[in-house]
Amino acid sequence: DIPSFTLNTGAKIPSVGMGCWQGQQGAGRDNELVSALLTAIKVGYRHLDTAQFYANEEEVGQAVRESGVPRSEFFVTTKMAPAAVKDPVKEIESSLSKLNIDYIDLWLMHWPQGLTSTDMSSAQAFGLESQKDLGPTFNETWAKMEDIFLNTHRGKVKAIGISNFSPKNLEILLRTAKVVPAVNQIEAHPYLPDQELVDLCKEKGIHVTAYSPLGQYNSPIHTDKDLEQIAKAHDTTTANVALSWAVQRGTSVAPKSTNEKRMKQNITLLKLSDAEMEKIDAISKDPKRSTRLNVSAYNKQTKRAIGWTLEELG
Ligand code: A2P
After folding, report:
1. Closest Cα to atom 16 of ligand 1
2. Pairing between strand 106-109 and 160-163?
3. Which of 98, 132, 145, 283 is 20 to 30 A from 309 via CA?
4. All domains of the chain, ordered by start, with CATH?
5. pLDDT tens figures, 30-63
């Protein structure tokens, strides 16, 4: 069994899950994805992490149903598309129907911005173009998610959470939240530890799941000299070291892999020494090895977060 973390709802989330984002083109949709997921389930994965935006909830649900593993052993996460913030009820009903697995373990607000469908279909999805349609604030969207969780879809949504929320976003959200998010899912890896955000979430009782825990495509993590040295000492790979570090610092991870060997490697984690943990913690202090934007920077990049000014978002 894969070790797990306990959420503020009391439910357990496996420390390693399978990220189902198949890339921009939605490559691997349909049977290819179903068969990759069946392999993942066979080798021991129980957390499947999808989203409306990934356009593959049907395939994820199909894999769960076809696996022969009881539904209760799975932890399935999906996310509300940014374009759906005006009608979260319609969105959750759509996810429940596409997944068709009775209930959803964790439902996340995908981004703190509530972009409209027009925004999403334009090249400036995260740009400045239209100031006309501001849509709801993320606090208002959260209140609707709370109502779905507590009232209208009670039992169909076992936990609610957020994704890509910066410390400032979180602070604003918690001013009005009645339900503390169970999870904040953020991009995190040794080149982007976002330790302050991880610490803040911990203080608030919010579990952090790291997406792209290997740093996405062509990641420099695979050839990092410090990770390589630690990997060598344990006769494993840098990827394995990076994931072990993430879980050991208290975050769950959702690396994507369609390769059985790598799937296995990613759920068989190591115990790192304190010195090794510190060495990995120090990597991103080297500006050359701190390559990606953290969520605060992403959120500033969007130039507007609906309903909030940049000043308010900090
Ligand atoms: P593959 O599916 O061929 O294993 P992300 O960081 O967005 O989750 O992306 C993970 C990327 O890293 C995928 O391209 C995946 O390719 C690759 N990958 C997953 N696990 C490993 C691993 N253990 N070693 C090397 N590459 C990996």
Report:
1. 257
2. parallel
3. 145
4. 13-313 (3.20.20.100)
5. 678 999 999 999 999 999 999 998 999 999 999 9
